[in-house]
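Quick start: read one record
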Amino acid sequence: MDHCTATNKNGTPCRARPRPNRSYCWAHDDELTERRAARNRAGGKAKSHTARAAKRVPSDLRAVLEELYETLAELRAGTLPKGRAMEVAALCRAIVAVYEVGAVEAELAALETTFKERRA
């Protein structure tokens, strides 16, 4: 069999190759419905703004980000007092500030090295 025996949403015959020993392709095989749905859900999560932002966060700050998300969820659920949430947020800001200072110092050190090399 050269092509999937299913019909596309627009009414045209599917032109994809069927799975081995099957008459349907991956997209039309009823046995794979749940796997397709799981992949679509995972794909959507990977493309979300949150997922993209999390990828840009340095790996050692991801725990801070997770803590903030958990705190936000608890606050929304009403299981965390507002004062406690403010304390957690303040600590997270302090951690991020330390990383920012470290990044600036590293960049400054690199610039100083470059400057010394050019003067030599």
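The chain has a mean pLDDT of 81.
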